[in-house]
């Protein structure tokens, strides 16, 4: 019987709870689980400063990260900036004690390069998020001064 790393198994189970990874094949998810690092942040810790490159994607297990948006449990922070290779537009803070699974930007690029199915799901999720954001902007009432 093969030996399993209990930390990787715990990460695998945690990743499965994220909508982004719910439909990912188990072997692809195991590769992600093997490349995440668990991070904890105290309330008011900086995740990233404005105008600096986002070095990692954070999958939020517990807590909350705020920049101009609010990210909570089972949401992903930093993915758009990592894919666009752009700096953060706002400083992001852990508003309360927060625990994340962190994937270094370079590692995530390598994982996507090796796993086409995962890359399709990630791109679809990001596109849905962008389309939803654009639709909300277009339906927002225009306030005239």
If you had to describe this structure to a student in words, what would you say it looks like?
- With 145 residues, the chain is of the alpha+beta class.
- 41% of the residues lie in helices and 21% in strands.
- The protein is built from five helices and eight strands; from the N terminus they run ααββββββαββαα.
- It has helices spanning 6-16, 26-34, 79-84, 105-114, 116-139, and strands at residues 37-41, 46-48, 56-62, 65-66, 70-71, 76-77, 92-94, 98-104.
- The strands form two sheets. It has a four-stranded antiparallel β-sheet. The protein has a four-stranded antiparallel β-sheet with strand order 2-7-4-5, with no helix packed on it.
- α1 packs across α2 (26-34) and α4 (105-114) packs across α5 (116-139).
- The chain is globular and about 40 Å long.
- It starts with 5 loop residues before the first helix and ends in a 6-residue tail after the last helix.
- Mean pLDDT is 87; it is low at 140-145.
What is the compact description of this entry?
By secondary structure, the chain is α+β, with helices and mostly antiparallel strands.
